[in-house]
Amino acid sequence: MAVIEARGLTKTYAGNVEAVKGIDLDVESGEVFGLLGPNGAGKSTTIGMLTTTLEPTSGTALLAGHDVAKEPLSARGASSVVFQDAVVDRSFTGRRNLDVHARLWGVEPARAEKRTAELTAALGIADLLDRPVGTYSGGQRRRLEIARALVSDPRVLFLDEPTVGLDPRIRHELLDVIEQLGADGEITILLTTHYLDEAERLCDRIAVMHEGRIVALGTPTELRAGLGEELLEIRVDGDAQAALDVLRDDGIAGDDAFSVGSTVTVPLHDESSADAVAAVQQAGLPINAVLARPPTLDDVYLRLTNRKETP
Amino acid sequence: MSAAASAATLPRPRSPIGGTLSPLATLARRRLALTARTPRELVVPLLTPVLFALVIAPALKKALHTSASYESFVAVGTLGLLIPLNTMFSGLSVIVDRESGAQRELLAAPIKRSLLVFGNLAIALATTALQVGVLISFAVARRIHFHPTVSGVLWFTAVALLFAVAMYAVAETLAARVPRSEEYIARLPAIAIVPWFLAGSLFPISALPLVMSYVSRVLPLTHALALMRYGLLGDSSGLHAIWKLSDPTAMAAMSLGVVAIFATVLTTVAVRTFTRAAVR
After folding, report:
1. CB contact under 8 A, B108 and A53
2. Which CATH class is domain A2-223?
């Protein structure tokens, strides 16, 4: 059963800026769903519409069966959000921040107290609860925000770039937390991220957004499979686009090849890596490095977000 | 993460709405706690009115050889400065919430967004009431005389409350419309202080040039001050200067009505402006 359903969802800001251009989405109950995309792809706008802090220009979205435009209170009651930026009352203690959330979400005080104790113990911040949040480290604050979001037992948890700005150790610890939440299978999680390793590790399915549209949707395995079993990465000393043009002219590279910076990446499919290297060398383009490897989600992401949309 | 896992098996919380009063009380308590952590928000708006009531008014009385009633006149007049200053300072907290990001969590809550305005309003009114009480206490301690009656106190309370609501609505509207606190503060004097000079605070509006006296009569502050003086001093001359009638009660009722209309309209505008600014 889909807990998040979007149909033809669009958002156009003042000045005719089309941030989201008609997306269709179904996120199943208990699923961890990732929205990937570069800055400006429309990820945060999509989350904003689903959490009713942005009004859709057209289309519909249902959250736990509630239309976000017609029943915003019910939709908000079924969800919680962990925002990209710090969203806390810094002068309040952690406990007070959790208490305000619980009361606004209508959680009975006794249950809120119990959940606060459980969640903060599980997230390793129980000892900090009576300190002002302004004294927390970035990782501690982010854990508090996750605990706060869970106090109301949401059916849907939105995580908007949850690990941005955290140091690598804290980031990995936080990924463990989110992974465990997802493994529980009862909360539906929609997360946005720039980090493809996060998406690969955490998400059951991924939608790649680019210029306001979903350009690919599937499991990480399905998305990788679109690039075949092996690809060739050639780093040239000069214009990688020129190398890509050569490979395409020679029929070695298809539409799914792409270049970023000085590197051209070519899914090989039935082609030979030796032919590809020879073609670039014959064109007089110096090669700095060559690597044949299986495709990763990074390749999928770079291929899909590397091209400008045709008007 | 056993606790997180348990979320799956535990029952869902009760109805997210939970009535209106409970979330309103939560929002008001939050605002009160934040205000209490910044006492300057309470003290700063009080300084100028207290200075006027306790230092400048007696000095004017002495220099101008006026009677003791002038001190009382100005003491009430300073309330017309105190209430706008305090409510406008309260509006700053809306911008602080927005700039700190805390407002986003509140906007994601399953409550009507108008409650965010009313939660702030409740504390703005409470702090204003506290300050009005402090100012009047200082004035009494300075032997400035008031002549309150039961009905007079009711008139005073009603108009002070409605005027504070109206001014807080202006503050909330402005806070929703300007992006930064610096811009908000830059506009504060024009809204909180300029009308004070035209509304019969330091002298009767009949002393104003004719055109300005007409301008004065459409200001809610003019009606509020005239009615406050009627309530606390038993002086209906301010009401008469506005309405040119002989029945003080009728004039008081009409001035109260004017302030009530301002409060209603401005609050409606504030709620709409906040909601539209919050949800783009």
Report:
1. yes
2. alpha beta
